[in-house]
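ok so heres the complex, two chains, lmk if somethin looks off
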Amino acid sequence: MTLGPGTRTFLVFAALVVLGALVFPSSFFYRVGTLVWINTLAVTGMVVLLGYVGLVSLGHAGFFAIGAYATALLPQYGVPSGLAMLAGAAGAALLAALIGRPILKLSGYYLAIATLGLGMLIWMVLSKEAWLTGGPDGMTVTGFSARNLLKSVGITLKTAEAWYWLCGAVATLGAVLAVNLGQSSAGRAFRAIHDSDVAAASLGVDVARAKSAAFVISAVYAAVAGALLALANGYITPDAGGFMHSVELVTMAVLGGAASVYGALVGALILTALPQVLTVFAEYEHMVLGAIMVGTMIAMRRGLVPALAGLLARRRAARRAGRLARRVS
Amino acid sequence: MAELLQFLVSGVTVGAIYAAVALGFTLIYNATGVVNFAQGEFVVIGGLTAAALIGAGVPPLIAAPLAVLAGLVVGLLLYRLAIRPAGQAPLVSLIIITIGASIFLRGAMQMVFDKQIHRYDGFSGEAPIGFLGATILPQSLWIIGGSLVVFAFLAWFMGHTRAGRGIRATASNRLAAALVGINTRAAMNLSFALSAAIGALAGVLATPVTFTSYDVGVLVALKGFSATMLGGVGSAQGALAGGLLIGLIEALTAGYVSSDYKDAAAFVVILAVLFLRPQGLFGARMTERV
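and the predicted structre for the whole thing:
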């Protein structure tokens, strides 16, 4: 029996969520695990944009922050958290569509520069409008508890564990959707654009529309991830929408390998766990991130997962060739 | 009236800085096709190096060239260690590389220098000069003059020297330039070195007025970009005009709208240019190299 790519992704991700829960000794690990799944979700959006279509956004943290602040602010006006989260995702999608359409008709560097500016603008508003957002100090987020949600369906867990399972489930769902998207005709159009705009257009792909769709989808991923972070932490600051966070998201994607959701997971895992393991990381954070970006792009342009997969495939081929040679001689 | 004039004076001052950044950015883009997101870091390196040297008692006249030299060396290293090894990398990889390099430099400056905000006294003192009811800092004249000198130098260098013509030939067609015997690699080295030196010089001149710290590079680079895009990518006149315009828009925003959002002006301009006139005021459309 052969499994479809979507099913395989579901099994791998679900197994890893369960594995984490089996080995984690304390709430601290669950909290880091939660962060890994949230980042994986956001980076999965980068996979659609960067990996499938080949566009780079340097302002995705802006969409992340829109999701996070919608979830933080709207409940204060009586909107339920779930609805607030949807509103955040819709807001991010709308903004991405508005900004994306005219810019994506152009090519090359334009999206990178425009998203960099857009991200900065969002961050600036969040930092300056202190009456609404609490300014640089951030604000607390209340109104939804994963623990109560799971309790209502008869599962009683500690708070940190409940968030871990919920975020793991959403990240798994996000990965399966992204893989299925990649297998669809839209996904094939995305990859055709990645290889060549002109060739894709000549085959009847509406290039500007497809790019815009990928940009909107990736913005929704970022917004949902932001909303989850706000709720899970119970706290959010404008730095979630800052330039460095945008850079982190891109770095995670290229480090793991932007072409697949497995790359997103590996990149998110490494860059989320590294600061927890290495205490010097805080001091050298910028240098480490920058060196990873430059080094990955020079030494293994497609990222860790494809590089390792290629290595394994070559070794397996060599072993098979060796066996064949022995049999012949 | 005096108030407006004051805003215009400060707008032209910061605008001259953005123009210098935009000129450096244009130089690298023309010669190599790379949009260098690390351009702002050269400005910071210049400013912080000068601040450290002057703080240690080195006279400004010696500190300034040394700081420019430091920027130049970093620019060469950037090309040698990060851009050239990438070879014929796709556009996306080059963007990520220069962003990575800029983050790396930011971290390195945080280690080498510190996280404080730095400034030093202007080269011709601090006493403001009265001017039709407004005042202008002597250092502003240094900044404006410096940018004009850079512009004039580049015009002469590109038009009248062998090395400059080599850069232009490389820019127009790398393969054809190589075929007629131009050392295109040297031309690219030179363009990075020159561009970094220009950025560092802007930093050295600007720091007494604008202050500097390890993390302002991204903002400076973005304003340089918006100047470049407003003027038209690839055009030196465009870079100069765009820089001055962005400076003026920013100063007027700060004066009449909100000083909280003066930095936002440049981003709004970027988006407006992209929406309304992607080729900018002077330039040809920025196209992807296939």
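quick notes: The mean pLDDT of chain B is 89. thats all i got rn
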